[in-house]
Amino acid sequence: MNGTPWSSVGWVLAASFVGSFGALFLKIGAGKLGKSIASVATNWRLMLGIAFYLFSSVLFVMGVRKGELSVLYPMVSLGSVWTLFWARLVLGEPLTRPKFVALGMILCGIALLGLGTR
Protein backbone atom coordinates (compact mmCIF):
# COMPACT_ATOMS: atom_id res chain seq x y z
CA MET A 1 0.00 0.00 0.00
CA ASN A 2 2.47 2.55 -1.24
CA GLY A 3 0.15 5.56 -1.28
CA THR A 4 -1.99 4.56 1.67
CA PRO A 5 -0.70 5.09 5.21
CA TRP A 6 -1.44 2.46 7.83
CA SER A 7 -3.35 5.03 9.85
CA SER A 8 -5.84 5.30 6.98
CA VAL A 9 -6.24 1.53 6.95
CA GLY A 10 -6.88 1.64 10.70
CA TRP A 11 -9.55 4.33 10.35
CA VAL A 12 -11.35 2.39 7.62
CA LEU A 13 -11.15 -0.89 9.54
CA ALA A 14 -12.60 0.86 12.58
CA ALA A 15 -15.35 2.30 10.37
CA SER A 16 -16.28 -1.14 9.09
CA PHE A 17 -16.38 -2.52 12.63
CA VAL A 18 -18.56 0.31 13.96
CA GLY A 19 -20.80 0.15 10.88
CA SER A 20 -21.51 -3.51 11.55
CA PHE A 21 -23.15 -2.48 14.82
CA GLY A 22 -25.28 -0.10 12.79
CA ALA A 23 -26.59 -2.99 10.72
CA LEU A 24 -27.23 -5.07 13.83
CA PHE A 25 -29.21 -2.37 15.60
CA LEU A 26 -31.20 -1.50 12.48
CA LYS A 27 -32.22 -5.16 12.25
CA ILE A 28 -33.14 -5.34 15.94
CA GLY A 29 -35.01 -2.04 15.72
CA ALA A 30 -36.90 -3.12 12.61
CA GLY A 31 -38.24 -6.08 14.56
CA LYS A 32 -39.63 -3.70 17.19
CA LEU A 33 -41.43 -1.33 14.82
CA GLY A 34 -45.06 -0.56 15.43
CA LYS A 35 -47.69 0.17 12.84
CA SER A 36 -47.40 3.96 13.02
CA ILE A 37 -44.72 6.06 11.39
CA ALA A 38 -44.06 7.64 14.79
CA SER A 39 -42.73 4.31 16.03
CA VAL A 40 -39.65 4.90 13.87
CA ALA A 41 -38.76 8.10 15.70
CA THR A 42 -39.31 6.57 19.14
CA ASN A 43 -37.42 3.35 18.44
CA TRP A 44 -34.11 3.76 20.26
CA ARG A 45 -32.66 0.70 18.56
CA LEU A 46 -33.18 2.21 15.12
CA MET A 47 -31.75 5.51 16.32
CA LEU A 48 -28.70 3.73 17.74
CA GLY A 49 -28.21 1.92 14.42
CA ILE A 50 -28.34 5.22 12.57
CA ALA A 51 -25.88 6.74 15.06
CA PHE A 52 -23.45 3.86 14.55
CA TYR A 53 -23.66 4.30 10.76
CA LEU A 54 -23.14 8.04 11.09
CA PHE A 55 -20.10 7.56 13.33
CA SER A 56 -18.68 4.93 10.99
CA SER A 57 -19.01 7.44 8.14
CA VAL A 58 -16.95 9.95 10.11
CA LEU A 59 -14.26 7.30 10.68
CA PHE A 60 -14.32 6.40 6.98
CA VAL A 61 -13.82 10.03 5.97
CA MET A 62 -10.83 10.22 8.31
CA GLY A 63 -9.38 7.17 6.58
CA VAL A 64 -9.88 8.15 2.96
CA ARG A 65 -8.56 11.65 3.58
CA LYS A 66 -4.95 10.52 3.04
CA GLY A 67 -5.28 7.08 1.48
CA GLU A 68 -6.10 5.55 -1.87
CA LEU A 69 -9.83 5.04 -2.28
CA SER A 70 -9.29 2.02 -4.53
CA VAL A 71 -7.45 0.28 -1.69
CA LEU A 72 -9.53 1.50 1.24
CA TYR A 73 -13.10 1.23 -0.02
CA PRO A 74 -13.05 -2.56 -0.46
CA MET A 75 -12.08 -2.81 3.20
CA VAL A 76 -15.54 -1.52 4.03
CA SER A 77 -16.75 -4.98 2.99
CA LEU A 78 -15.22 -6.28 6.21
CA GLY A 79 -18.35 -4.83 7.78
CA SER A 80 -20.15 -7.77 6.20
CA VAL A 81 -17.79 -10.14 7.98
CA TRP A 82 -18.43 -8.48 11.33
CA THR A 83 -22.18 -8.36 10.66
CA LEU A 84 -22.19 -12.09 9.95
CA PHE A 85 -20.50 -12.64 13.32
CA TRP A 86 -23.00 -10.39 15.19
CA ALA A 87 -25.97 -11.99 13.40
CA ARG A 88 -24.85 -15.38 14.63
CA LEU A 89 -23.88 -14.27 18.13
CA VAL A 90 -26.75 -11.89 18.91
CA LEU A 91 -29.57 -12.92 16.58
CA GLY A 92 -28.85 -16.64 16.42
CA GLU A 93 -28.80 -16.69 12.62
CA PRO A 94 -27.28 -19.84 11.13
CA LEU A 95 -23.80 -19.94 9.59
CA THR A 96 -24.27 -21.80 6.34
CA ARG A 97 -21.76 -23.07 3.80
CA PRO A 98 -22.60 -20.32 1.29
CA LYS A 99 -22.00 -17.71 3.98
CA PHE A 100 -18.57 -19.19 4.71
CA VAL A 101 -17.75 -19.23 1.00
CA ALA A 102 -18.78 -15.58 0.70
CA LEU A 103 -16.73 -14.75 3.79
CA GLY A 104 -13.67 -16.39 2.21
CA MET A 105 -14.22 -14.52 -1.04
CA ILE A 106 -14.42 -11.19 0.78
CA LEU A 107 -11.21 -11.86 2.69
CA CYS A 108 -9.38 -13.08 -0.43
CA GLY A 109 -10.51 -10.04 -2.39
CA ILE A 110 -9.22 -7.67 0.26
CA ALA A 111 -5.90 -9.53 0.42
CA LEU A 112 -5.54 -9.40 -3.37
CA LEU A 113 -6.19 -5.67 -3.43
CA GLY A 114 -3.49 -5.20 -0.83
CA LEU A 115 -1.05 -7.21 -2.93
CA GLY A 116 -2.02 -5.39 -6.11
CA THR A 117 -0.78 -2.07 -4.78
CA ARG A 118 2.82 -3.23 -4.42
Could you characterize the architecture of this molecule?
The protein has 118 residues and is an all-alpha fold. It has one domain. 73% of the residues lie in helices and 0% in strands. It is built from six helices and no strands. It has helices spanning 6-30, 38-41, 44-64, 69-72, 78-89, 97-116. α1 packs antiparallel against α3 (44-64). The chain is flat. The relative contact order is 0.19. The mean pLDDT is 91.
Domains, number: 1
- Secondary-structure element order, as H and E? HHHHHH
Uncertain regions spanning at least 5 consecutive residues: none
Major sheet size, sense and barrel closure: none
How many strands in all? 0
What proportion of the residues is helical, as a percent range?
over 70%
Report Rg: 16 Å
Residue-averaged pLDDT: 91
Termini Cα gap: 6 Å
So how many helices?
Answer: 6
Shape: flat
Structural class: mainly alpha
Strand content: under 5%
Question: How would you sum up this structure in a few lines?
Answer:
By secondary structure, the chain is mostly helical. Helices cover 73% and strands 0% of the residues.
Which descriptors would you attach to this protein?
6 helices; 118 residues; 73% helix; mainly alpha
